[in-house]
TrEMBL record:
InterPro entries: Hemerythrin-like. It holds the Pfam family Hemerythrin. Gene3D superfamilies: nmb1532 protein domain like. Residues 10-110 form the Hemerythrin-like domain. This is Hemerythrin-like domain-containing protein.
Amino acid sequence: MDDSTMLELWDRVTGHVSFLVHDLMPFVSVEEEILYPALAVAADTATPVDVLRAHQVEISRLAAELDEGRRSLPLGEEAGWRAVRRTLAGVHAIARLYFTVEDEVILPLLESDLDPHEAEELEDALRAVARTNTTSHDFQQA
């Protein structure tokens, strides 16, 4: 972020907010419809679903905080930019944790519980959603 102009940074933050609000959160809500019911059965408890939902709530809260910070940011105000950077770091950390938990805990749990046909159907449904929600924004650029 240090090598960019304030206007370039504002545009990038705007892109990140757009990605979070219009791409990531809708994808996560579809996961809730497709993935979570299978997970609740596989885990025989709601705990993994509750963990993912807590991550979703925090990502959504931080996305709103990031958007609010971006909207109220006068170009050139260093303290405001520091707050935006902190929020970006927080959203990045929570999103990374969300996908790590999903990849390393949730999906192996599902794979152990589902038969190959059920696993393939679930994977196909998630891929279809991912294809319709692809974006040109690269969240990790920030």
